[in-house]
Fold:
Amino acid sequence: MSQLTIAVHGGAGTILKENMTPGLQQRYEQALQQALDTGYDILAAGGSSLDAVTAATVVLEDFPLFNAGKGSVFNHTGGHEMDAAVMEGSGLRAGACSGISGVRNPVLLAKGIMERSEHVMLTGRGAEQFARQLGLSFESEAYFYEETRYRQWQEALEEGKVVLDHNDKKFGTVGAVALDAAGNLAAATSTGGMTNKKYGRVGDSPIIGAGTFADNRTCAVSCTGHGELFIRAVVAHDISCLMEYKGLSLQEACDVVVYDKLVKIGGEGGLIAADAQGNVALPFNSAGMYRGYRNSRGGNEVKIYKD
Amino acid sequence: MSQLTIAVHGGAGTILKENMTPGLQQRYEQALQQALDTGYDILAAGGSSLDAVTAATVVLEDFPLFNAGKGSVFNHTGGHEMDAAVMEGSGLRAGACSGISGVRNPVLLAKGIMERSEHVMLTGRGAEQFARQLGLSFESEAYFYEETRYRQWQEALEEGKVVLDHNDKKFGTVGAVALDAAGNLAAATSTGGMTNKKYGRVGDSPIIGAGTFADNRTCAVSCTGHGELFIRAVVAHDISCLMEYKGLSLQEACDVVVYDKLVKIGGEGGLIAADAQGNVALPFNSAGMYRGYRNSRGGNEVKIYKD
Structure:
């Protein structure tokens, strides 16, 4: 039986202790722990890594302070356009959606696309139509309204800028990776994208290979960072290839990509990754990353800043 | 000075000589040659590989028999939703659009997104809005109307199927790769997707790493095939990684991906690729692929079937 392992993230960026209150930090940490526990319980009960990463991501999507699901940022027209993806390492099955509005949990739509359509990626109104056929929950604009997000949007509108999550240069995304008892890896990622984004912009989160990837032979990866750079560097798949073709360990592959290759092209952010032996890596080249992991060796850690 | 090289494709699939007339075959071959010559003339005049692949792809988009631009297939609602991407190997810059209607040459929008936005991927109505700001040409539905495509859609509607290009199981996509005198590689891909497609389906063409990729250190790749499988296998980036991390030649890397890895997951199709030495590879695991290449060593070939 494989080591059970799950890791989650709630975004990376300029997350600094001096801008945090103890109460706020506790809320973030509790949400990360709840996501870890929700996923881990599924793994411990013999569930699949796919179900574990999906359930953990739903917890993060429902938490109003992360930029995904309920806490998604406002786009240029005052709406919410969300993206998500899932992938499982056995058989390389994947599902993704982009530019969707109203769907309560985009990660469930990504999973539904993978399991119940013949496609990998659906977008916009068409993807929403498929979500309705699946019977997924929809929410009104009121559900997605968060005062803080609204103020961030108003500020971005005034400055005429597209901002990554808010003024703190935070890359708002959530995600999870896991290894189940059967030895199967899976990854999930979900995001509300960039505040004040225009033109149907899509980042790396729903791009298989860029923000999300899983292959039982190597690793499962979920990214959070400046999406454009992560797409161009095909980050998640690059880590897999460094392991498969160059024989690097998970940590070595993550180090090369996050601290060298991404830095060279100005790609700020981080990622979480797990391999088939139950190792995890949670590297980031920004000031902080909301992150945590839990495993069957008794490991359990939730962190926000650099050590 | 580098060898000048350009290769193009007009889709792969069950393309059989017995279903072709001499006149039709000549039209296909002329279109491919015209695309090669258009791109090659730019390279020979000292132009960039990016300009060469874009211009070659415009020729293929304007040709009514390939599934891209003017010849795009009908989607489920009787419209046309097109996808395109470009990438240049120096600096890994990329641009892509998906689910766009009315834009005469989607590849020009992909190039405009790369050069004139801060984003990599724009979708749907938002991407069209950006195209208008760029001053790109729009066409009415009449321009995109092709009798053959309409019949294929009607047949697909009756059968309730999503079909890849038409009854012949052809993966309609066009694309180009090139190496310019400065040693820069570039790739471009454009498609109308699948006949009768629903739900805003997006294939591999606009996905950087899957259908389109370029890196001066390795190769430029443009794919055509069953998009879902090409996304899951991150085909274009995989070829690059096999060269970079495993030291395979362009041809060896293409052979591994097209004849082994893709076949194992049922991924039918092919691709065109060029490396920094001016080598080209045009592998496909389907019955045929519209393809050709031209280089400064005097090489010039246009082919449709297996040898």
